[in-house]
């Protein structure tokens, strides 16, 4: 793996959001130090200092500077290491905006409804969550047909991209 300067990832093994960052670092071929956080028993001073607003993982620390929130970290990795490995975001500004939209859609629509489908307090809440999840998946399938150029295997076309990482980490 290529060096990326001083890269450190604060994470938790069960977090799909941390997995997103690990996938992106791997696709870019970047080496990094991984620091497992025990967010149940107590957060480390490094985490509290690096992410004082939310105090949650993931946090990527690059040359001593923290970057927070998984989708923002993915964009940062793509921009900061543009000459290393494949690009996660398309070069075309419109296609880049579309990729950002669908990644946000996954976090804002698909994930909450999916969580509600099994965490709902009542059967009705769970059923509504499932209904919303299926509607979100239908929207994503339609977008996939458009974004993948019809016959490509991934949202990004022939290579893994931003939306693929955002969605794939949840699978």
Element order, helices and strands?
Answer: EHEHEEHHHH
- Largest beta sheet, briefly? 4 strands, mixed
Domains, number: 2
- Please state the overall shape, judged from the principal axes of the Cα atoms: flat
User: What is the strand content?
Assistant: 5-15%
Helical content class: 40-55%
Q: Can you tell me the residue ranges where pLDDT is under 50 for at least 5 consecutive residues?
A: none
Structural class: alpha+beta
Q: What CATH architecture label of the largest domain applies?
A: Up-down Bundle
EC number: 2.5.1.18
Pfam families: GST_N (PF02798)
Catalytic activity: RX + glutathione = an S-substituted glutathione + a halide anion + H(+)
GO molecular function, one term: glutathione transferase activity
How would you describe what is shown here?
- It contains six helices and four strands.
- 52% of the residues lie in helices and 10% in strands.
- Helix 1 runs parallel beside helix 3, helix 1 (16-28) packs antiparallel against helix 6 (162-168) and helix 4 (93-119) packs parallel to helix 6.
- A four-stranded mixed beta sheet has the order 2-1-3-4, covered by helices on one side.
- The model has no long low-confidence stretch (mean pLDDT 89).
Would you kindly provide a brief summary of this structure?
The protein has 171 residues and is of the alpha+beta class. The chain has six helices and four strands.
